[in-house]
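Hi there, hope your week has been kind to you so far. Thanks so much in advance, here it is.
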Amino acid sequence: MSNDRTFSPRGLDVAAFAQAGAELAGEWPAAALTRLADSGAPESPAAAWPPVRWRVLGSVKPVLGGDAEVWLALSVQAQVHQTCQRCLQPAALDVVVERSFRFVRDEAQAAELDADSDDDVLVMSRRFDLQDWVEDELLLALPIVPFHDVCPAPLPMVSEPEESDEPAKPNPFAVLQALKGDKGSSGSA
C-alpha cells in the first residue's frame, strides 16, 4: 500500500491507516470539542483556551500463527480550565494522554480481549472519528476533583463567631442537668 494516501481525521479507515504506517497530527480549537468545553469553568470559556494538540500513529504488528494486530498510538496535549474545588476559581489544568490502542474486528473479540489482557481494545471502523476519540480520552483523563496546586488567593478561613451584645442563650442540656439534679435531691429526702 502506498504511503502517500491522504487520511481524514473525521473519517479514518483504521485498517488502511495502520497498514500504511501513517501518521496524522494537528490542532483543534478547544471550543470545537463541545463536551470538553462544557466541562470547563463558566468564567473561562473554551474559546480562550489553547488549542488541543494531537498526534496519532498507525502500525501493524505481526503475530506468529494468527492475524496481524492493528494498533494506533495516540498522543494529546490540552489545557482545560475547570473550577478549583478549594477556592472556586478557574484552574488551568494541563491534560496529557499517551496511550496505544489495539483495534479488532468486532465487539465480541473486543470483549474477549478486554477481559483477558491489559491492552486498550477498540472495534475497527472504516469511518473512525479521531476528534470524537481525542475528546473521549481527554474527558477520561480529567481529574475527578480539579484544584490548583497553589490557589491564587488565600482561602477563606472559618472564624470563631463574633461576640455580640445579645444575652447568651441557655444551654438546653444545662436545663436537663438541673432537672436531673432536682430529681436526685427529692429522691434522697
Remarks:
- The first strand starts at residue 23 and ends at 28.
- The mean pLDDT is 86.
